[in-house]
Design brief:
The protein is mainly alpha-helical and 199 residues long. It is 68% helix and 0% strand. It has helices spanning 3-14, 34-40, 46-63, 72-89, 97-113, 120-139, 147-171, 178-196. 43% of the residues are buried.
Length: 199
């Protein structure tokens, strides 16, 4: 894929973010189908967008020599996001959800910036652990009606962000050793800002 095709693809991928903001449990009544609400939801917070893109970046930068391994972290994230989404939908709340989401930005950013290559199983566990907390945050805001459709849309929207991160890594970050450090550093700084309350 040529770089000139990548930009329109990424722009199209982020268009849903302009449609809706965080919408609450009863928004299905007002904003169309539950599936679309779920699809859009991962795009409604820079913390979620940053984490999901960075998982894709890290996976591509670390495991690009193995076509199967490169999908392990994104699939682990999406799978455990679904589990967290179910927990959040049914009212499971943990006081550390926002803290763990912020910590995920710091950890994922450092993984990219430092090009850390973890064993595949360890990497999947790290990603999956943080994904549960992202899922709880999302699930608590999905519409009551059409839960299955909303969760399906949420997982698809998440996978699109992971793929976007993989494309960014493949066609942009791999061109220069400093680009992953800058991109990962920016995400890690956002995590620090959230953890410290500065953002």
């Amino acid at each position: 894929m040529k770089l000139k095709y990548l930009v329109p693809l990424l722009v199209t991928m982020f268009l849903p973010a302009t449609a809706l903001a965080h919408i609450g449990n009863h928004a299905g009544i007002h904003h169309g189908s539950a599936f679309i609400i779920g699809l859009v939801h991962p795009y409604t917070g820079f913390d979620h967008i940053g984490a999901m893109l960075t998982v894709g970046m890290w996976s591509m930068l670390s495991f690009n020599q193995s076509p199967r391994a490169v999908w392990v972290a994104p699939v682990a994230f999406a799978s455990f996001l679904l589990i967290g989404g179910l927990l959040g939908f049914y009212g499971a709340g943990l006081p550390i959800v926002e803290l763990m989401i912020a910590a995920s930005l710091l950890v994922f950013g450092l993984l990219v910036a430092l090009r850390i290559r973890l064993p595949l199983v360890v990497g999947a566990l790290v990603v999956a652990t943080f994904a549960v907390f992202h899922g709880i945050a999302h699930g608590s805001e999905l519409p009551v009606s059409g839960m299955a459709a909303a969760l399906s849309g949420m997982v698809l929207g998440t996978m699109l962000l992971h793929i976007g991160g993989m494309l960014i890594a493949r066609f942009v970050l791999q061109r220069n050793i400093w680009l992953p450090r800058i991109a990962g550093g920016v995400v890690a700084v956002l995590g620090v800002g959230l953890l410290s309350g500065a953002i």
